[in-house]
Amino acid sequence: MTFRASRTTGTRPLFAAPDRPGSGSPPRPGPGSPSRPVPVPRTPSRPVPLPGTPSRPVPVPGSSPRPVPLSASGPFPRPAPLSGPCSHHQQRPVPLSGSLRRPVPVPVGRGSAVQAARTLVVYFSNSGSTAALAGIVARLSGGELVNLRLSTPYPAEESSHIEILKEEERMGTLPWLVPDYAGPGGYKVVLVGSPVWRSGLAGPVRSWLSKFDFAGTALALFVTHGGRGGGRCLDDLARHARNGIVDPEILHVRCDGAGGLMGLDEGRIVAWLREVKDPATGKPCFFGL
Fold first, then answer.
1. How many CB atoms neighbour CB 175 within 10 A?
2. What is the DSSP string of 104-144?
């Protein structure tokens, strides 16, 4: 593009074309404009309070200092929990008048069996036969089962076992028990179970009996044997259970020596339990069997 010379301006045209971007020549400032740009003052990060305005909002009298949380359903405050007997806000249910706080224990036995007094079933078993019989006795009588354990178990070899039994009988000593057994305190009936060893009660059973006074307690005996019956076990029970009232009936069941019972009939156990009498009243301790 060419320009014609003007009479008043000389070589420069009267109207110059604006500088194009990228032409290489910097823009010329207009008349009266400063040579350098004036810096713009920075905006403060915090709003400047107006004169007379407090720095913190003043709470309205009667309003809560903290904002009320809004509910998820809408812009309404969450309702406060009721202070009355509402079951939703109670941690523990309030029992009704006349109701029981604890459930009534159901007697253990053959369906309708009823237990008149607390019963303890204590036994010692070496091969497992007496333990099996004690479990059935506890189930039918509803008694609490206690297993007597030795501090030093008998050897598994039969000849060594017999030698120890002979030594205990000759020296008049009793074996030491693990002290985790229960005593007869609080029980009206104690059912004692033992294998028949050398025609008498096993040493661990005699050791347990000799530690307590059985005044006012009824005792009944059940034993397992290899074919010779109960022997003198009933006399051993009467001699070692001080002041106890021993029932004359004995329940004896033959075992096979390997933990099994031979010819067991629960009817015999029920008939034996029915003969146990309360020392105070003379009435049967177990009825409903």
1. 19
2. PPPPPSSSS-EESS-EEEEE--SSSHHHHHHHHHHHHHTPE
* pTM assigned to the model: 0.60
Residue 33 to residue 87: CA distance in whole angstroms: 82
Sign of CA dihedral 262, 133, 269, 247: positive
Banded pLDDT at 280 (limits 50, 70, 90): confident
**What is the CATH number assigned to the segment(s) 121-287?**
3.40.50.360
pLDDT tens readout for residues 36-85: 655 555 655 565 556 665 556 555 565 555 554 544 445 445 545 444 44
239: three-class secondary structure by DSSP = helix
Six-digit token pair at 52? 């007379």
Which residues have a Cβ under 8 Å from the Cβ of 172 and sit 6 or more positions away? none
